[in-house]
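Table S2 (text version). Query chain:
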Amino acid sequence: METLVVGAGMAGLATAAELGRRGRGSVAVLEAGPDRGRTHIQNERSPAEALRLWLHPETDPDFRRPYRTANGAYRDLAGLRRRVGGRSLYWGGVLLPVERWALTEQWPEAVVTELTETWDGGPSLYQRVVDDVVGWGAEPPGAPGLTLGAMEFDRTPHATRTEPAGGWSAFSPLAWWDDDGDPRVRRVPILAGHDVAGVRVEHGRATGVRVRTEDGELRDLRANRVVLAAGTVVNSRLAIQALAASDAATPRELPGLVDKISQGFTVAFTDPGRLPDAVRAAAHEGHVYHRSGTASTRSNQFVRFTEGANGTVNLDSWAMGEQRRGPHSQVRCDGHGEWPWPTTVHAPLEAGDEPVLAAQRHLLGELWAEMAQLTGVPADKLHFSARHGSPDLADRLTAVRTPTPLTYSFPLGSEQHEAGTLAFGEVLDEEHQFTAVPGLYACGPSVMPRTGAANPSMTTLALSKRLGAILAG
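Corresponding structure-token output:
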């Protein structure tokens, strides 16, 4: 085998699809979980059932948390959806690039140019992703925004479409394996029930993987190249094992683990007649709008109006921001015995994240003050818990909206946007290859030196397309 891709989620499938399109060498995708089809959870389940699977993931038979946590973070909502398609069959479809202020010197200049300006003799990688999802059926970006008093919000681009039989779907690279997809992609096999225990390393080079199949058998699969695309924490564990196999003195930890920092509030307006016509129309349509963050706030702010019971209009607003990579937030392994090694996540907020928390609360308070003025209700200050990470997050997100704002914050790991442990320029070179283990590559959010405020999915798709082309070349 020329290339084995570990993980059939968004990153692994997008990498394998690009390899298939270019027809260079044999490639297969290995997935630990089962193949339960290609239907997005929002089209497969009722809205109430899909919400339950998100807020109570232990009810999902494909949910796994293959690590321990040391300080209360990366619990509750955090974990993997271990099935063919992975989280690409669960995500909400927000399609935003990493902001310019985050594409700093920590990102290789060539990668930034390819993401934002031009790639492979044509449009940028970000534009290629937009073209892919619009061709699949998503609404093109650029729909009219929303004005709330003195505040301007853009319509948030989404990689989603309404399905003919009802419900909606978000884009998954699995669509490229559909019967009407590119035959070169459909020829790439996706092998479910192949749980990768570790990467084979011989004479310092990756030469394949060791897998446990559904029947419990351990097998060695040989390949010239191995791509880690199993999510940041599992990628980290596999990388630590491979680095240790190459050099026994290698530390059994990888620093730089980050998730998004997110806080929000909900409120109900019981007299919608006081609301501007544009707001009532936005509530009927249910679209999401956002304001882009700056280098100082490191956060995007989102708003969504929906129609509630008895004619009320509900407002949900949340800020999502960048946790900066630091030495204390890391993935560790107990480096002894057979693979897979026991894995622990250490994920505290650090001093550099405090300004983000304060900026988000200011942004949310600014919106609440504007809406209170528009509707003539008292603009009492929003009150947030001193402890970041609401322990009753699920209850707060599903509580009946009231005229009194209810605030919340997501514990680290709950956004499921883990990133940063295998960053370009540190663990990887500019071509996604491990500098210490030739033949071993990585893709997905784990390779990002800074993640900015955006959902990482658009950048994951873009970088995976890039890696597929590199491997094909």
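Notes on Table S2: The longest strand covers residues 260-269. The CA atoms of residues 17 and 365 lie 44 Å apart.
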